[in-house]
Amino acid sequence: MNKNRRYPKPQVRLRQPALAGASPHDPPKLHHAFLLRKAPWPWRRALGAGLCLFVPLLAATLAHRPLWGLLATIGGFTGIYTAAIPLRRLALKLAIVALGLSISLGLGTMSAASPASMAIVFALVGGCATFLCSALQVAPPGPFFFIMACAIGTGMPVDPVAAPARAAVALIGGAIAWVISMGIAWGLSWRQPHHHTESAKRLMNRAPFQLAALRLRQALLIRSPYMMAGLRMAFGICCAVLLAYALGDTRPYWVPVGCAATLIGTTIMGTIHRAIQRAFGTALGVLIAGAILSFRPSYIALACIVFVLQTVTELLIPRNYGLAVIFITPLALTITEIARVGLSVPTLIHARFIDTLLGCCIGLVIRLLWWLPEK
Fold first, then answer.
1. End-to-end distance of the chain based on CA atoms, in angstroms?
2. In sequence order, what E strands does the chain have?
3. C-alpha span between 256 and 240 (Å, rounded)
4. Side-chain half-sphere CA neighbours of 145 within 13 A
5. Which residues pair with 19 in a beta bridge?
6. Is the previous residue joined to 141 through a cis bond, with omega within 30 degrees of 0?
């Protein structure tokens, strides 16, 4: 055999749903940020993701530990990463996601005591999550919810000593989401015909690990687009945190979230679309969050609200990110702020909206100035 033989690099091309009112051959334009994509309604995925947040919050509430339930919902975001892949691979993927979300929350809790530590840890979480998700081609939401988990950790009452306990509770929520997601996937697998031979099944289970190792080795090159994407995300988040503190924001956790959501865009126009959609979606989302927090619902009612918000978010994501942000925003703000003592809802609405605009502007500027090498 020729040892010098080179095999072609695997290429994965994801087809984007077509935009209603736009030709698939048209280049992206600014007004496309407001168009709806033609995509099926992912009811199974949406309901499963909603249950992954509803069940731990309801169970903890019935056990008279509602604050634990709020922490567990962060691990419940594991259900969002469900994908149509073989069950063994899905089980491993969701387990890693649950562990990553709990670690992100714990690191965010530990770093909230000072601006410097918060900027460094936030940048580390965002950079590593972006590098790994892009190198391993993790489908959306990719690194976003790891960054969100870290943000929620920094937005909670400052208590670094509570970091291990908060991470552990989030991991329990992730375990519940793992059981729910795997149960749904296992049930669906029985209803679908299987025509694979034993050798094909072994290949499906083994090849992805070899491919993942190959991708990581290639991605570790300093000039690889995956490494540069991680560095850009880390730099953007660090700048967002420090600039927010410099402007007098004492709880700037929402600024790096807006920056990260903008930087996830893969093209210049995609980044501009993200910034526009994030700004408009947040403007409406903070109003919904304000209404929820003003009514001070019981935790059982809150579990139902969280279920609805998460389900609707997953239904709208394939069609328009801006519409989904309208429901992502109150979901995250409610989890973070519901237990806060002396909460002023009008102040919260104003602060989080300004934070979003600042984060989106920072992300957009960095994206325009920092070009990534071609893949």
1. 30
2. none
3. 5
4. 24
5. 37
6. yes
Q: Which amino acid is at 161?
A: V
Which among 318, 246, 333 has a CA at the least distance from the CA of 41? 318
Chain segment 93-147, per-residue pLDDT in tens: 999 999 999 999 999 999 988 889 999 999 999 999 999 988 888 888 889 999 9
Give the long-range contacts of residues 55-58, CB within 8 A, separation 24 or more. 55/176, 55/180, 56/172, 56/173, 56/176, 56/177, 57/299, 57/302, 57/303, 57/306, 58/300, 58/303
Contacts of 71 (CB under 8 A, 6+ apart): 105, 166, 169, 170, 173
Environment class of 8 (CB within 10 Å of its CB; exposed 0-12, middle 13-18, buried 19+): exposed
* Count of residues in the chain: 375
Burial of 39 (0-12, 13-18, 19+ CB in 10 A): middle
Return d(Cα 29, Cα 96) in angstroms, integer: 37
Both structure tokens of 261: 């959501």
**CB-based burial label for 221 (10 Å; 0-12, 13-18, 19+):** exposed
